[in-house]
Design brief:
homoheptamer; mainly beta; SH3 type barrels; 1 helix; 5 strands; about 10% helix
């Protein structure tokens, strides 16, 4: 059972997640790692804008303070 | 009796709450967990914009610094 | 006599206060609790926009960093 | 002689000061208290917009991070 | 010889400096004090907008996080 | 195997990376160093706006809090 | 060999650097000092907007949190 928010992210390691950023862009990729600032590394990351795939940006470090949400299911 | 703001969130665990974010979007879901930064995990989260259901995003981690309020009743 | 700003909030516990947020919205409700970040819980909270009651949102946690002011009289 | 910025605020206790906030509004009132975050309590606070008195909001807690300046003379 | 940025401010004590804020306004006055957050007190402060003197605001506390730069010569 | 986000940046040292900033600009260069704030130094940095090379700015220090993402592959 | 981002700034002491700020303005001057917040002092600083010299502002303290980048070559 998850007790803290980071536990939920921990269970999502190596699964595909959707990140939404403060600038409105979305990134879909495999969650490789994160830290307490919610700095996050995605593998095979895809950038989506208004629901459309814009570009593939491979392994990508995303700074935590730009993240609004991480949908993990 | 609740003495601190986080006590009120604690009593809302496993209940449906409404989160309003700084970008104007609202999320309704079951409150699974939160931490002192107000990082929050909702289960069965729904995104609402201008009162309309936009999408269902399942279990979702929401970064605390994007949150304006959590209505817990 | 109040010496620190939080003393003034402490005296306002269980009284109706008016919160004004950075997004221009106002919330009126009974001040139940607050912490050093000015995270605040209002009971029977009402949202007001441009002086008009918009909705009632019950017990509500408001994140401190979105607050501009709390009028306590 | 004042050595640190907070000393200047300390000398202004119980005097009328003018606060200017990041949203462009000004508040004039008697400075009752402040802390290291510049959280401030004004008594008999008046809100001024574009030089005009808009409303009287009594004893008011103002969150420090919304403040641009405090004119203390 | 100055080694750290605050040393340069220290040498400017009691001299007239120009502060530029994030909202585009400029303040000219005698630098009385500052702290590590760059909270600053100016004496005989003048507000300038687009190069024009707008008003004189006497002794003024300016919150450090609103400051872009301080020209000290 | 990388366990933390900074491990991924560490593996990218001396490789060309793409940084995207909050102002929408992109910088491509060789990653020389970074710290826990994600302050970053690029060598032979190029500024790109809307996919076009705008200017070459040599060795460049980029403040971490302006960074959205670092694509490292 | 530089290992940390601040090492690169350290090597640039007493050399002319270009700072770019979040408001889009650029400052060129001799880097006299900086600290861990990237608060910076430039000597003989020049303000440039859209590539044009706007004014000379002498010795200038620039608050670190307004800086996007420092081009040091």
């Amino acid at each position: 059972m998850e007790l803290r928010p980071l536990d939920a992210l921990n269970e999502a390691r190596n699964k595909r997640v959707l990140l939404e950023l403060k600038n409105g862009k979305q990134y879909i990729g495999k969650l490789k790692s994160f830290d307490i600032h919610i700095n996050t590394v995605l593998e095979d990351a895809e950038e989506h804008v208004d629901g459309e795939l814009k570009r593939k940006i491979g392994t990508t470090f995303i700074r935590g303070d730009t993240i609004i949400l991480i949908s993990i299911e």
